[in-house]
Sequence to fold (268 residues):
Amino acid sequence: MKPAHAISEEFIRVLGKLDAVPSWKNNAVRGREGLAGAVEGEATMLEAWIKVVWFSRNGTGRAPGMPQPASTQMPEPPRMPQAPTQMPQAPSMPQAPSMPQVHVEQYEQQAWSRSCKTANTTQDHPSLRELSDLRSRFVQLSADFAVSEILEYTLQPARSICNGLELIARLPTSFLSYRSFTPSLAKSYTSPPLAFSAPNKPVHAYSESLVQMLGALDAVESGGDARVRDARKALAGDVEAEAGRVERWWKEAWLLKGGEAEVVDVRT
Fold:
């Protein structure tokens, strides 16, 4: 290729010399333009020949100095990511350390001791002791209640009579024992009120004591202890039942024998 390069350089020198020749407006000298065109044509043909030789020997698809043609191949579509063929395994849960056999009996013994201690503490709860005392008082109060032999009912109060005397009906109670009394199924009783007289004093005192005991039960604080709440509720139910039993007893006595009662005038 060295001779070809030399020829190309010679063509360039000739073109340079032609450009340096002045025309001085001489038509004969102006013929240099035709010579310059012929030299440029030869130089172009030489350059094309060099490119063809390069292409045939190297097979690169283009000769030196030639622009690379645009690619006609379609770009490949992007590949979709493949799903994993195996599902990830769930992490294994850590196993709780096993308790040494030598400490099992000791642990159970400690748990039993704590349970016993808690039970003793609950049993010694101040409210439980107070409820126990109230239960004992209630049992003793019921045992000491002595029923009067005569009940007196107010038929007409003294304020409604001009002479200041109160109309009283006296009814013996021997026919209806309070200890063995069982209230009837009647929902209500119609009877005159129990007079505030000396024969009725034990009944009034007993009823008042039961009402006071209900007030004492309301004042007992549970402190969130279920045993205290249950014991208080049970005792309150027994006291209320006894108070209702007393009232039903003297009302049912009038219902059964009120027509046989002795009516007297009593000055109050």
